[in-house]
Design a protein that fits this description.
single chain; alpha/beta; six-stranded mixed beta sheet; four-stranded antiparallel beta sheet
């Protein structure tokens, strides 16, 4: 073999080796990029409840979400129609798998309940007779959150658990702390958390058509696999779809402290290598080693900045409508508490002239369907801010509607609570004995004609009573005046008769008994039988007086 041939062979072998090296580097990069950071999910769907009617869609909803998460690369721990022990077991499995994961996600569909500031997920075998049962027969959401927050990672909790809940109606009559829907979960205490509810806190979500999905999960499945979209954008799109699909009756709620963007379906940017063209691969490797010129960063959508700008606009407008608009956009925003306080102040500063008419104007009609979703509690009644006058008005309206609240009182006692329960029963409302603002509006609308007649009758009765009292006062004064005048006249006539020395007959046709006048005056009163003796006495008395007078006159001379 000639020297030239050997050189050519050597060059060919070196080119082949270099190509293999570049190819290997490309494949290694491909493998590295193709393995994303570990992400773990817990998915639970409870439909077959035993103590209350079963739900149609939670199991189907959960299975759809589980399949989508698996396609997105999540390790999924899942369970369906779980009893209490089974639910705690899958939560424990989820907690174990979270070790070393960079993202954790929980999806739950089924019944949930809120008591005070705590939210509970209800297993299918739960039988809740008192508030204390929740600690032993339900799973506290905080238990799940604690497992997720043991390490620093992105944590997402999605709860489609705000359905019309018979457990809440059962417990509301025994506990004032039970409310419908779920209680807001704050995320300010820790970063990297997103909480999503199927509807606003303390509101009821729809379960959807049978053999389908709930409106919330249907929208979630539509958007959850969209590439290169952050989780906050996904939830914004879900909110918009649910709002439109339910005719603006259900609005999903989210609260997030995630810094930056977390994408459920990021596009994997894979390194490439062409094994058939070593020179092209080398060129690509060289180009990759040369840094590209820096480009200005694209503006990042900062929700907190939008929150601030929206609040500043509401402050400048300083109207109830502006503050409501802010709260609609940011129900748990940085300034939500201030917005609610200012809204309450503005509404209190301009009270309607007639509370009933104002409520009717704001709510053109209260349907039975809307009332049946209302569960009255001590909290809902306190939020109405009723004063003594308002409570008496509602008691009068109950009476006008045919119920018996007893004597009007400044506060609701046992008889008033019983009347409220009877009215709630007549309208198909959970019989808690406590009112909500919507229930008070329904009572006002129902009782308005009879209530106005009752007010008119009471006003008429009060006017008649006042008139009779005035007439009695006038009659009594006239009689007393005549009595005093008659007595004075009789005494004058008696004294005049005595001075004249004649008998006093009296003003009455009947002859008064001796020593007593017709008015009851005690003294000696002349009668025809006493003429002789009394006349002599009077004459003697006159002589004495006359002599005294004449003696004085003569001595004066």
């Amino acid at each position: 073999m000639s020297f030239a041939t050997r050189i050519s062979a050597f060059r060919f072998r070196m080119a082949a080796v270099f190509a293999l090296i570049v190819c290997g580097m490309g494949l290694a990069s491909l493998a590295t990029a193709a393995v994303p950071e570990r992400r773990v999910a817990l998915v639970i769907g409870n439909s077959a409840y035993t103590a209350v009617p079963p739900l149609a869609n939670p199991m189907r909803d959960a299975k759809g979400v589980s399949a989508a998460l698996k396609r997105l690369g999540f390790e999924v721990v899942e369970g369906y129609d779980l009893k209490m022990d089974d639910m705690t077991n899958v939560v424990r499995q989820f907690a174990q798998k979270l070790d070393g994961a960079k993202a954790g996600l929980v999806y739950y569909a089924g019944h949930g309940i809120a008591v005070g500031d705590e939210n509970y997920l209800i297993p299918v075998d739960a039988s809740l007779r008192s508030e204390a049962d929740l600690d032993f027969r339900a799973v506290n959401v905080q238990l799940v959150l604690r497992q997720m927050q043991r390490d620093e990672r992105v944590n997402i909790v999605i709860l489609d658990a705000c359905r019309d809940n018979p457990f809440a109606a059962q417990l509301a009559a025994r506990s004032r702390a039970v409310t419908r829907g779920l209680t807001p979960i704050e995320t300010q205490s820790a970063s990297g958390i997103l909480i999503a509810f199927a509807t606003d806190p303390r509101a009821t979500a729809l379960d959807g058509e049978r053999d389908g999905h709930s409106p919330f999960t249907d929208a979630l499945l539509k958007h959850i696999e969209t590439p290169e979209v952050s989780i906050t954008t996904v939830m914004d799109r879900v909110r918009a779809d649910v709002w439109e699909a339910t005719g603006k009756k259900q609005k999903p709620w989210t609260n997030s402290s995630i810094i930056g963007e977390f994408k459920l379906n990021p596009t994997l940017k894979l390194a490439s290598a062409d094994p058939t063209d070593a020179s092209a691969a080398a060129a690509k490797a060289i180009n990759a080693a040369v840094p590209a010129p820096a480009m200005p960063a694209a503006p990042v959508f900062d929700r907190s900045q939008v929150d601030i700008k929206t609040w500043e606009a509401a402050e400048r407008g300083n109207s109830a409508a502006d503050y409501r608009a802010y709260l609609d956009a940011f129900p748990s925003g940085q300034f939500a508490t201030f917005a609610r306080n200012r809204l309450a102040s503005l509404e209190a500063a301009t009270p309607p002239a007639n509370a009933a008419s104002a409520t009717a104007a704001a709510t053109p009609g209260v349907t039975d369907e809307a009332l049946k979703k209302e569960v009255g509690t001590a909290q809902t009644e306190t939020a109405m801010k009723l004063d003594a006058k308002g409570r008496r008005e509602l008691q009068s309206r109950l009476r006008a509607a045919g119920f018996q609240p007893g004597k009007l009182a400044a506060n609701f006692g046992p008889s008033q609570r019983k009347a409220i329960q009877e009215w709630q029963k007549s309208r198909g409302i959970p019989e808690t004995g406590f009112l909500t603002a919507l229930q008070a509006t329904g009572l006002r609308e129902q009782s308005e004609p009879a209530y106005q007649r009752l007010l008119a009758d009471e006003a008429k009765a009060a006017a008649e009573k006042k008139s009779k009292t005035a007439d009695r006062g006038k009659t009594g004064t006239g009689k007393a005046t005549r009595s005093v005048n008659d007595a004075g006249e009789e005494m004058y006539q008696r004294d005049l008769a005595r001075e004249r020395g004649v008998a006093y007959e009296g003003s009455s046709p009947a002859t008064p008994r001796r020593g007593t006048t017709s008015t009851g005056y005690q003294g000696r009163v002349r009668t025809p039988g006493d003429t002789g003796s009394d006349t002599g006495g009077a004459a003697a008395f006159g002589s004495i007086i006359g002599g005294a007078i004449m003696g004085g006159i003569l001595r004066g001379r």
